[in-house]
Amino acid sequence: MNPIILREDSSRRIFRDRAEAGRVIAELLEHYRGNPDVVVLGLPRGGIPVAWEVATSLGAPLDALMVRKLGAPGNPEFAFGALSAGGRIVLVDDVVRALHLTSEQVRAVAASEATELARREAAYRGGRGPIEVTGRTVILVDDGLATGASMFAAVDAIRAEEPRRIVVAVPAAPESTCRELGAMVDEVVCATIPSPFRAVGASFWDFTQVTDEQVRTLLATPTTAPEQAPADPVQAIRSCAIAAPAGLPPINELDALIGDASIVLIGESTHGTHEFYSARAEMTKWLIESKGFGAVAVEADWPDTARVNRYVHARGSDTTAEEALRGFQRFPAWMWRNTVVRDFVGWLREHNDGQVRNDEPTAGFYGLDLYSLHRSMNEVIRYLDRTDRPAAQRARARYDCFDHANGDDARTYGYGAAFGAGRSCEDQVVAQLVDLQRRALADAGSDPVAADDLFDAVRNAWSVRNAESYYRTMFGDHTTSWNLRDQHMADTIDALREHLRSIYPAHSLGSDRPSKVVVWAHNSHVGDARSTEMGAEGQVTVGQLMRQRHGPQCRTIGWSTYCGSVTAAQEWGGAAVHETIRPALPSSVETVLHDVGVGEFMIRLDTGNAAARALEQPRLQRAIGVVYRPGTERQSHYFHTRAVDQFDALIHLDHTTALRPLEPTSRWHAGRTPETYPTGL
């Protein structure tokens, strides 16, 4: 027995329809392509479109294996067994006992289904008999399994025909069903294993019922493999690969990708990889110097980056880039307090000094995130203390609402407000935001420095308002809190662009020049959610929102790595550790890119080239955040995506190294996982 199980850790929709699911399964069964002894049998009706794609790809004959589910009385979709051709019945004993079904009830349902089974056999095959399977490799295909009763019956029926080998292949099934089948047959391919498993249809965007006519048509359509074998995705990608040493493609290629875009989002597949940060910084320098970008907006809190922004504009008290980064104290500080960001901030200060001398627009450094509830409240009050004491008193009174929470722990406030253990401060934070917005309208046209200070206060008020909502919802539906965060980041980008446009006069190089923004964030925010499992759950991302709002003015670049090391914590709030990244899973985008054998390259996904076509099908993609759990890597760090629709370009660095914190601890130095992992543990 040699079952193949590709695990999936949620019940999100993966496949567009049954046809796409069939193509994915065919790729997993490609070792049977061209084998004359293989026959593919689909379970009608839903399994036939899936099986047709498999049979066509493998160049194998296709037939239907007549099996009927035995549905519970009053709930026919809930199977307690199945009936196959020849009258064989398979019962799920636990279900029969749980439903207290009598033998008379079982016989009545079986008799009814036997009539339908005979009707289908006559309708689908006409006068033709079934394909001979004795001594052959039989691949049994359905569109998904729940209890697996129908497939168990199919296996029982086929085994009586004495095939040489039995293979079961389905797009989605519970892990328990896959493992039970794995003990019965020679090979099992479960393309996804949702957990918790709710229904087969939950894995499809389009799960329209298959008709008898569609089954007849597909069974009558030849499944001979095309004269030319399906394109090898590795070869297709290799033919389009653009060399990118250390992650940097040639300037002419980067220029062709960016074009006239005014919003460029550059991702990272981990929050702790040196090469991602370094190459992203170098690209950003080019965007600022050659393309006139005026802002770097990062996945960090507004007040922390405001201190850096003051430094790069020579307005703060900090004298070095490292000092300016000391505002980043909240976990995970290493994301921004690291050597690459320090060097970039130092460069940005030097660049701006030169711009000021030449009376040219400068470039700023801004935060997009919303975790800074208490720090942003303090910044609002500090601004009003300088400019309007009575308004500062009103702000204090409103923000005093949060005093009942435990210290500065925003999660404590959120938990209490969400479950009635504390009062909600929603009305107070909204009122304070409205006051500052009115002030901004009244003060429109003030000098740039004053406008910057007021804009800073308004964005802090927005951060308080949205953080209050975020912490209040984070203990409930994950989709709601995720969307609040990414919508806040997208709105901040748009507000920032409008602010920069308003304080800088039209320039000879173009009035939009200062308002061009480059965004640094994780792939999971930069990529378009509509091409991932996230979108199926209703989640949105910054990349998606920017595309929807700005169309071709937005360009997105994702990153990928196969193996190496990473800076991450072993648990939320833990110390930064130097971890070894396990080689990517065989079915992932990362492994396909690794197999290209180039090492460091970029592929365009926006041109419809061979590489883009090779990444049209859903594949696993790895995402490592600030926590890395190699022991549960599949469940913790992978999700399905269509990379071709996720980014405009993807840069792959086969081997990468850990980002170095400014203050590496003994844990970071000592925390390197042995290269023999996991056998060395």
TrEMBL record:
> Domain of life here?
Bacteria
Q: Which Pfam families match?
A: Erythro_esteras (PF05139), Pribosyltran (PF00156)
Q: Which residues form the Phosphoribosyltransferase domain?
A: 20-96, 120-180
Gene3D superfamilies assigned: 3.40.50.2020, Biosynthetic Protein domain (1.20.1440.30), EreA-like (biosynthetic domain) (3.40.1660.10), EreA-like, domain 2 (3.30.1870.10), PRTase-like (3.30.1310.20)
Record's SUPFAM superfamilies? EreA/ChaN-like (SSF159501), PRTase-like (SSF53271)
InterPro entries for the chain: Emycin_Estase, Hydrolase/PRTase-associated, PRTase-like, PRTase_dom
Entry protein name:
Phosphoribosyltransferase domain-containing protein
